[in-house]
Amino acid sequence: MASDALANISDEHRECRDWSHSWTPFRAWKIKGGGWEEHRLCVNCNSTLIRLIDKQGYTVYRRIAYADGYVLKGLGRLSANDRAAIRLASVKAHETGQMAE
Ligand SMILES: [Zn+2]
């Protein structure tokens, strides 16, 4: 499936799959019981990381609300081969040429 799935991954989504998301603070507010709900936004793909912490700072809930199109429909977790193909596509997109000696 690797080649089919890879063909449909945007540059931004490929970056996040290869190097993981780049979370930036977005919003946070106090919730019932004295804890906090925090949302961070990925500057690459617009996914949102949602985290709830209690008043002592312990994480009680954490999930990612993925941007539209990020989750590859009908596919389970990416295999090691899929991830290898993503790395190759990523490095080829950012190749700058040989380092001077
Ligand atoms: Zn992302």
Write the layout of secondary structure elements.
Elements: H1 2-7, H2 11-19, E1 23-30, E2 36-42, E3 48-53, E4 59-65, H3 80-93
Antiparallel strand pairs: 1-2, 2-3, 3-4
Bound molecules: zinc ion.
Q: What does the model show?
A:
- There is one protein chain.
- The chain is α+β, with helices and mostly antiparallel strands and 101 residues long.
- It is built from 3 helices and 4 strands.
- The chain has a 4-stranded antiparallel β-sheet, with no helix packed on it.
- A hairpin with a 5-residue loop joins strand 2 and strand 3 (48-53).
- Helix 2 (11-19) crosses helix 3.
- It binds zinc ion.
- Zinc ion is lined by residues 16, 21, 42, 44-45, 47.
Please give a handful of descriptors for the protein shown.
alpha+beta, binds zinc ion, single chain, 101 residues, elongated, 29% helix
TL;DR?
The chain is an alpha+beta fold and 101 residues long. Helix content is 29%, strand content 28%.
Radius of gyration: 17 Å
First-last Cα distance: 40 Å
The total count of helices amounts to: 3
Main-sheet strand order equals 1-2-3-4
- Give the overall pLDDT as a whole number: 90
Largest sheet, strands/sense/barrel: 4 strands, antiparallel
| pLDDT < 50 runs, ≥5 residues | none
Structural class: alpha+beta
Percentage of residues in helical conformation = 25-40%
**Can you list the ligands bound to this structure?**
zinc ion
Q: In percent terms, what proportion of residues is strand?
A: 25-35%
E-strand count: 4
What form results from the Cα inertia axes?
Answer: elongated
The secondary-structure element order is: HHEEEEH
